[in-house]
């Protein structure tokens, strides 16, 4: 049985796959297997895989008869693996020289279920170079040890969480095979990382974030265009995938409430819901043309509950109203644009609330907090009149925020989440 199993899902990528595989088979630590799963490519990817397997007997290749998505490809590879540890590597990325030896040495002195190591971002385009520094910071874990229930409670937290990619993490082999064995046989793209992190976190006892470990070589922008515009149809697909990930997480929790006992399942699902709808609506705001915004909003509402969508609209109200509130000159062009945008998103949110009465009875704390602070900024800046009764001090404290930090964090999540698929 090998020490390491490295699983690579492959689809229509014969160009970079040899570079990826050679970065693994060329490691100084030799006791490994590489499992490549072709998800029914339509180009010469499978032929490339066959040549790689002929070069090195440690390379095993598998092939899906029909395209089934990233979750299925990773599940096929992980459940067929034999290693003490499992790593997942994307087909156009690499492992830095010495990675496996370093991971093995660290694991010998620090037994854990999840090992989170850092990245070195290699930018493929000028736009990627501009994003590389921030991306490196976002994907570099904070050195720490987490145990038991705090792993899941921390990963998807609004503050001080850690990214939900399954690459640049090493998993104890039996845990990874159990987690992927639980995963349903369903098509899931983009959001499969987040879904599997939730499952793995739920099963894990110890998480280790390794200091000074830039060992995963992340090729940012290969085959992608940063800031590319979405069509309404593409946005609807994206929103649907995010919503499907949440449904699968709810199914997992319903099936395992008894055998994985914890008293905070509802809070942990709410954390994931907030991160997923944040991603959906950032794509709506940033990458849908203005003339498509309303149609995109209707698509989001077909996938997501009205309070979740409204919460994100109030996040934008909050940020624009805050920028207007603290401006040195409220009459300049930038301030006036912030004023118009704050009121525009406010009208959108209020229209949804009026058309969906259930928002008035929601217990969605994220939505309620975002609405509270947004309205506070609107009133403080004089953009809307102050009501006769004010929100409670406790509600105000709950809604405190840093708009700039929130937007920066959301940007890096969006790039990391979107560009690699």
From TrEMBL:
InterPro entries: Glyco_trans_2-like, Glycosyltransf_2, Nucleotide-diphossugar_trans. Residues 381-403 are annotated as: Disordered. CDD domains: Glyco_tranf_GTA_type. Residues 5-127 form the Glycosyltransferase 2-like domain. This is Glycosyltransferase. SUPFAM superfamilies: Nucleotide-diphospho-sugar transferases (SSF53448).
